Amino acid sequence: MPSGTNTPRELVVPGHHPPLTPSVTEMVIQEVIDISGCALDDLPPLYEAIDPDALNALYDHGAPAIEFQYAGYHIKISPEQTISVTHEN
Fold it and tell me: Which domain of life is it from (predicted)?
């Protein structure tokens, strides 16, 4: 290769394929963190409210509307994966 030529290089780590976008469960948790101001360690496990694997699978294979309660918040996920988080009264 001639000197002074910059060719972009890509780092490839065998067996490591990070997701391109966050999962639905990751988005839910992040929304609750953002709204509540809590740290992740202060929130209860999501599995106490809903099965995280089942929730991710629903959005991997379709686009349902889901509502559930988590950590004192009402979570609503639209078919477009828009997440609404409101405090329970």
Answer: Archaea
Name, in order, each residue with C-beta under 8 angstroms of 81's C-beta and a sequence gap of 6 or more.
Answer: 24, 27, 59, 63
Task: Output the DSSP codes for 2-66.
Answer: -TT---------TT----SS--HHHHHHHHHHHHH---GGGSPPGGGTS-HHHHHHHHHH----E
| pLDDT tens, position by position, 5-38 | 445 555 445 555 555 688 999 999 999 999 999 9
pTM of the model: 0.73
Which amino acid, one-letter code, is at 61? H
The full set of domain ranges for the chain reads 24-36+43-87
Pairing between strand 66-70 and 73-77? antiparallel
Question: And the tokens for 12?
Answer: 């490839």
